[in-house]
Amino acid sequence: MSPLENLAITNCLLTESDVTHLSQCPSISQLKGLDLSGITLTNFSPDVLQGLLEKVASTLQELDLELCGITDSQLEAILPALSHCSALTSFSVRGNLLSLAIVQKVLGCTTGLPGLCQELYPPPRESYSSLGTLLPGRLAQVRAELLESLRALGRPR
Question: What whole-number distance in Å separates Cα of residue 113 and Cα of residue 117?
Answer without folding.
Answer: 9
